[in-house]
Design goal:
Blueprint lengths: L1 H25 L2 H16 L10 H23 L1 H4 L17 H22 L2 H21 L6 H21 L4 H24 L1 H6 L13 H17 L1 H5 L5 H24 L2 H24 L3
Helix pairs in contact: 2-3, 2-7, 3-5, 3-6, 5-6, 6-7, 7-8, 8-10, 8-13, 10-12, 12-13
């Protein structure tokens, strides 16, 4: 009897753990965390917001809800193409561990929860811009990926809105400081995402996605586009400095890590291989993390 009870308890624990893991995969929690982190940084960069604000946790929860919902809608719409790619075939929907109605329910509940938190504890403008970001990502960018490589440009808009949403949550306005943070994240996404698209090119081809610039193939033209947007990213780093959002330390951190990112982009132009793209991807992560923390340290 005791053995049966222990076995039942273990089975229940495994089922709960498995379901929790599926929900984390459905909402792409790791990616969502990075996105929401940039939203929180945008909030903390508002001059009148205290770094130790207790509302940071509420904004983080609201951001996780909205971003997780967007990712759930994305996977719901792409479950058939996800089944064709090695890197996504194990997700709960294509693997059959979750039914579409359950994923839709999760997405709707998270959307509602996030919007309520933003409206009640921050301001309605932050909630409206968050809803626009979710709709652009889930219902414009997601289907566009099947048409042409301009999807990356379209997807860069919702991808860059989190720091602006954070700024709106703290200030209640669409002022220039928030837009400067938007531009910084907007241009960062191109070397970052195109590096991923280069590495996973065969997988994306199997699903019918053409995400690299130009004709969607790995070539010198695509590498040059990545290099060009890396230069634009470095230039965008001057705007928050000129608007007195952050100081010279954050600017220097952006220039230093930007120079390394530029070097990796140039190496991709020279070699046009996946190893160089992988190094570029990691350089983009280094840039993102370094600049985010430098901004917090050097807030004006």
């Amino acid at each position: 009897m005791m053995y049966r009870e222990q076995t039942a308890s273990w089975s229940l624990s495994e089922a709960i753990f498995g379901k929790a893991k599926d929900y984390l995969q459905l909402t792409k929690f790791t990616l969502s965390f990075l996105v929401v982190f940039s939203c929180v940084v945008g909030y903390l960069m508002v001059p009148q917001v205290n770094i130790g604000s207790a509302k940071v946790l509420l904004l983080f929860i609201a951001g996780i809800c909205i971003t997780g919902a967007a990712n759930a809608f994305n996977q719901l719409m792409e479950r058939d193409t996800d089944a064709l790619m090695r890197r996504t075939a194990g997700r709960p929907l294509p693997a059959g561990r979750m039914q579409p109605v359950e994923a839709l329910t999760v997405a709707l509940v998270l959307t509602l929860a996030g919007l309520i938190l933003l409206s009640v504890y921050f301001n309605p403008l932050a909630a409206w811009v968050s809803l626009i970001s979710l709709c652009l990502y889930a219902f414009v960018y997601t289907p566009w990926k099947r048409w042409n490589s301009l999807a990356v440009f379209v997807g860069a808009f919702p991808g860059a809105l989190p720091p602006l949403i954070g700024w709106i949550a703290g200030s209640g306005t669409l002022s220039a400081g928030g837009w400067s943070l938007f531009l910084l994240q907007f241009f960062w996404q191109f070397p970052h995402f195109w590096a991923i698209a280069w590495i996973a090119h065969e997988d994306y081809q199997r699903a019918g996605f053409r995400l690299l610039p130009g004709n969607g193939t790995r070539n010198a033209y695509a590498a040059m586009q990545i290099l060009s947007f890396t230069i634009l990213l470095i230039m965008a780093g001057f705007l928050p400095y000129l608007l007195h959002v952050y100081g010279s330390f954050a600017l220097s951190a952006g220039l230093l890590t930007g120079a390394y990112l530029l070097y990796r982009a140039w190496k991709l132009v020279e070699k046009c291989d996946s190893a160089s793209a992988r190094q570029l991807m990691f350089a983009a992560y280094i840039y993102f993390i370094a600049v985010q923390f430098a901004m917090l340290i050097d807030k004006i």
